[in-house]
Fold this protein.
Amino acid sequence: MHPLHPNLQPWLAEYNLALKQKADAGYKATAIGAREALAELTRQQVAAGPAVAWVNDDLAPGGEYRVPVRIYHPEPRRPLPVLVFLHGGGHMAGSVSVYDPICRRLAAASRHIVVAAEYRLAPENPYPAGLNDAASVVKGVWDVLDERRLPYRRQLALAGDSAGGALCASLSGKAAADGAEPGIARQVLIYPCVDYTLAQPSVAENGDGYFLTANRTEWYFDQYFQHDEDRRQASPLYWPAAPNPPATLLITAGRDPLRDQGLQYGNQLKAAGAQVEQLHLDDQMHAFLNMEALVPEVCQLVYRRIGAFLNAE
């Protein structure tokens, strides 16, 4: 088994010790703590910036909810393709504000108009509220850009990390199955969750001591699925192969409980005829993009690969 990146090891030891001390002091998991923890981690480890020429907030039309979005246009006088970004956080945490520096990096690296969605979170808004919001943004993104009179190319890609990757895979899978137009041309899945049943060996192998634990993941999903939904049916990994799946860049980490489901999903997409690029980082763990100060060269590699993939002919 490949060891964890040396820069991550001392940080992780301190993190695990702090978790134990919090538990001993009576800490109880709530949405408050989950949201604060992800926000604080990202503030500490991901520097602000880079500058993007045009950044503004707007609302995407939707049946249930007008979804707040933030638009990052790196060249506002030039029509660029569009990348809808869906943040991670276990369907409970994260926000456009927390992920702002990551969105800026994506816009700079990809030369795409990044549209980041402030989808609703559990437990206040359980499944399928967040998925419905993501679908509204994908459907309504062109109207938002038209209203802003921003130049764009009608070429759509999705990107998301962790739970955001789950939303991306769900949307692209449904779109491919339905033959929806305009189709999703490409997707970037960053250590995605595509199996809400957590049935893979890596859940046990990496499920304790590597930042994202199996117990924590199950807790996230218990907050998300509150009405006895069939979690297998909600998992893109188990859906029938759809015709014409989008080209996919799949990024996985060796010390991640979600590793195996991501790798398995990539193999399934290949079998269905998708163009799949895989970037597997053996010495990384879940959420490493939110730990950029610890592994800057790894994060720079990831952004370069994302940019190259999204701009490939």
